[in-house]
Amino acid sequence: MPLKDVTIKNAKPRDKAYKLADEKGLYLYIKPNGSKAWRLKYRFLGKEKTLSIGLYPDVSLQAARNARDNARTQLTDKIDPGLAKQVSKRSAKEASENSFEMIAREWYTKFSTKWSPNHRERILRRLEKDIFPWIGKRPISEITAPELLTVLRRMESRGAIETAHRASQNCGQVFRYAVATGRAERDPSNDLKGAIPPAKKKHHASIIKPGAIGELLRAIEGYQGHFVTKCALRLAPLVFVRPGELRHAEWNEFNLAIGEWRIPAEKMKMRVTHIVPLSSQAIAIIRELRALTGDGKYLFPSVRSSKRAMSENTVLAALRRLGYTSDEMTGHGFRSMASTLLNEQGWNPDAIERQLAHGERNSVRAAYNYAEYLPERKKMMQQWADYLDGLKAGGEIIQIRQRA
């Protein structure tokens, strides 16, 4: 006699497990602990077998009967339902293990150890925000070029065209890694060349007029926010490194006795050790900061955890708080400021480029020449700091040095 929902609900556990039969081999198996499991008894190639369907009430009576009917259809087609279920579970497991997200994270773990901290954070955030929510769970071998293009166009539609191009490059790296490790046959990102419009080259906003620089420096001195943030703002124009290099500065990289900050190659964009000569003004700021953060790893730790570096948006947010918009000044703008004025003032362009840590075409040469022009750079950095002091004081604006 077919089971009814009320019979199932009222069935109580006994000292020993027992069965409540439905129809066509379906029954409910009730254990002493009270669990109720749907099972199907069937025969395949003359051998009696049992198929587990699921637990009640997660699987209702009607759902169990539907599963039974599907299994009987498979039997008619000479398919063992139990074996088919095992194959399906195995395929689902393989699909999960070979999903885009799983392989992307594997690729990231393998290769990110050689990237700078800022680069690592940027790529992982891009994948987690713009890629994984849409194709992360998809088997990587099944992702098509049109499917990837749909994801990239989400970024394009919000105006993040450069991000879309970079995301496409990252996805291509993941696909090629999957091909190399035998989990995909091709890289569909290759089919998307020209599908996203080129990004307009953007220059980081910067203040380069001496009078306006003086106003900025005075505004920084009057900053009323967190002291560590103020120190970062004060130090930025004196060292003009990239924002990520500044916020990831570690105490063990500084030698104040000789006035040098040596940034390890793995932290630098061009993967070459970089020496930053420290002016007396920079050293004074760093010594002030040591009293507050000197016991930790970073000069500029996160406000949430001393084990992490300051957020990449902290300096930018501080500039906004001082009233400078994104069209007026950015964290990168201190580099443009120094580059423009130092060139105008007649310093050796090669010494300026080396101090800005711009790329050396010959990577082997770059690895050995990071100290190139160092005596001249030390002099330049001190006179640059003195010049900024003059602007901050509102004094007469003079050239530091003229070309020979």
TrEMBL record:
Chain ranges of the Core-binding (CB) domain: 98-179
GO molecular function: DNA binding
InterPro entries per UniProt: CB, DNA_brk_join_enz, Integrase-like_cat_sf, Integrase_catalytic, Integrase_DNA-bd_sf, Integrase_DNA_bind_dom, Integrase_recombinase_N, Phage_int_M
Keywords attached to this entry: DNA integration, DNA recombination, DNA-binding
Classification via Pfam families: Arm-DNA-bind_3, Phage_int_M, Phage_integrase
Gene3D superfamilies: 1.10.150.130, Integrase, DNA-binding domain (3.30.160.390), Intergrase catalytic core (1.10.443.10)
Segments forming domain Tyr recombinase: 203-386
Biological process terms in GO annotation: DNA integration; DNA recombination
Protein family membership: Belongs to the 'phage' integrase family.
Official protein name in the record: Prophage CP4-57 integrase
Organism in which the protein naturally occurs: Aquicella siphonis
Taxonomic placement: Bacteria, Pseudomonadati, Pseudomonadota, Gammaproteobacteria, Legionellales
